[in-house]
Amino acid sequence: MFGRERSVRGKVVLITGAARGIGAGVARELASRGAKLALVGLEADELAKVAADCGPDAGSWEADVTRWEDLERAVAAVVERYGRIDVVLANAGIAATGFTRSIDRKAFERVIDVDLLGVWRTVRVTLPHLIESRGYALLVSSAAAIVHIPGNAAYSAAKAGVEAFANSLRAEVRHLGVGIGVAHPTWIATDMVDNADQHPVFGPLRAANKGFASKIYPLSVAVDLISAGIAARARVVHVQGWVGVVKLVRALVPRVVELAARKIVPAADKAALADIAERGAEESSLVGPGARAAARSHGAL
């Protein structure tokens, strides 16, 4: 699917956001192929559990991708232990749900800080080591970079930024022997997606949108495709294939979304305001354990 895959045996793979979901799944898969996993992120206990699953060559380092000093300390420790970094999966990401006029401002900005600027920081700190190893980085964007649904503005903006960043970065470092890929997962069965579907306002809003673009795929689908993409140093990984097709007509997508939103957004807008009045803006915006961990790291909870 991606061309010739290379062995990852013995390769040092650094994954951010590795405590849960796609990051944890890919870590376990690559460890089963003989890679040495360096797991970086919040939720130290969860990270340690994943590292234990990845065998004696795996290690975990607690770090917040919104803090330069955390990443610099973690990357230095990884290089001290393994002597190199061959692959980076910049996967750390959170979501916040809400309409732009009422969403908690700090929650919105945390999504940009983690999902976009966290990727930039991860790349900047690890890039010297990838240049030395002529390695590969896969930056996790999303189908949300192409399909911009209501109530998801922060996430869509951040993930679109990751795609653009990856495309510019690829052209900048190709002559240095570094490969850059971008991954576009759609709805995957993770804690984040499950929590979003349980939201009293935005769960029903998403459920009202039927069709292939709203289908939730098993975690194994994303793990298999992303792991294969890493092994092949793929330029792009679509999870699923329809994401690549939609890219070809992306100029038409916003109009389609707007037409679909006309019937469902007015009532959801009122419901969102009522939910905020009942639970508070911060609580209403949080989606999943990762978002809560990021909020705690920033002193918001």
Describe this entry's structure for a reader.
The protein has a single domain, classed as NAD(P)-binding Rossmann-like Domain (Rossmann fold, 3-Layer(aba) Sandwich). Helix 3 runs parallel beside helix 4 (105-133) and helix 4 packs parallel to helix 5. The protein has 13 helices and 9 strands. The chain has a 7-stranded parallel β-sheet with strand order 3-2-1-4-6-7-8, with helices on both faces. The protein has a two-stranded antiparallel ribbon with strand order 5-9. It has helices at residues 21-32, 44-53, 68-82, 105-133, 153-173, 191-197, 202-207, 219-231, 242-248, 253-261, 265-279, 281-285, 288-297; strands at 12-16, 36-41, 59-62, 87-90, 95-96, 136-140, 179-185, 236-239, 286-287. The model has no long low-confidence stretch (mean pLDDT 92). With 301 residues, the protein is of the alpha/beta class. It is globular and about 55 Å long.
Give short descriptive properties of this protein.
single chain, 301 residues, alpha/beta, Rossmann fold, 7-stranded parallel sheet, two-stranded antiparallel sheet, 13 helices, 13% strand
Topology:
Elements: E1 12-16, H1 21-32, E2 36-41, H2 44-53, E3 59-62, H3 68-82, E4 87-90, E5 95-96, H4 105-133, E6 136-140, H5 153-173, E7 179-185, H6 191-197, H7 202-207, H8 219-231, E8 236-239, H9 242-248, H10 253-261, H11 265-279, H12 281-285, E9 286-287, H13 288-297
Parallel strand pairs: 1-2, 1-4, 2-3, 4-6, 6-7, 7-8
Antiparallel strand pairs: 5-9
**What is the spatial order of strands in the main beta sheet?**
3-2-1-4-6-7-8
**How would you sum up the major sheet?**
7 strands, parallel
Strand-residue proportion: 5-15%
Question: Tally the helices: what do you get?
Answer: 13
- H/E element order: EHEHEHEEHEHEHHHEHHHHEH
Bulk shape = globular
Helix content: 40-55%
Number of strands: 9
The domain tally reads 1
CATH architectural name: 3-Layer(aba) Sandwich
Average pLDDT over all residues: 92
